[in-house]
Fold:
Amino acid sequence: MLKLIYLDNAATTRISHEAFEAALWALHDDYGNPSSLHQAGVSAAKVVGKARSQIANYIGASPDEI
Structure:
């Protein structure tokens, strides 16, 4: 039996459930502009900073490289 595997996900990759839930949360609950100085912006900047730190730690980089 021939099984085809689709590998061209350049524009159509399905995201993981975890990534979807995180994005949904951010879009709904922490939607501020992280470059803004108001409370929603400062909160969003903290979320972005935490994400940068987690990714950097995972790949062995520093957060300012992300």
Remarks:
- The chain is about 50% helix and 0% strand.
- The mean pLDDT is 88.
